[in-house]
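We treat protein structure as text, and this decision shapes the records that our systems exchange. The tokens are whole numbers drawn from a learned vocabulary of local backbone shapes. One such record is reproduced below, unchanged from the form in which we store it:
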Amino acid sequence: MEEAPIIFIDADEDDQLMFKQALADLSSSHPPVVFSNGETALDYLVSVDQAPFLILSEISMPGMNGLELRQQIDKNPTLKKQLIPFVFLSYPIHDNLVEQAYDLTIQGLFEKKLAYEDWKTQLRDIIAYWTACHHPKKVKSAL
């Protein structure tokens, strides 16, 4: 069975390319699935059977932003039950966004690193955490 994908949502095409390159450089077994906004990501999430391993989302995007996407996931009973780890990877981080984000029961908020090697290390650490974490999603899949 193919590994669950890592969803990356960011309107910046350079960041999308950097994400794909970083996953390749890290030899990740999780295929990248990339979207430019929350609407297309949500359409994808409700249309596939396999829950993603992880969602990494920018907060500020045109159309449905990351905060609105998280709200929509929580409102959808099927998606909510999938217990998909949801992490914001955004730049810049403003204090008011931190409170808003954590009110939405996210699992992390990181400021994107600007240099590629730093960004790749950050991504490696996030993936390693969720790979090692005893998360309810893992327990459900083991049953």
About this structure: The radius of gyration is 14 Å. The beta strands are 6-9, 32-35, 54-57, 86-90, 108-111. The first helix runs from residue 13 to 25. The mean pLDDT is 91.
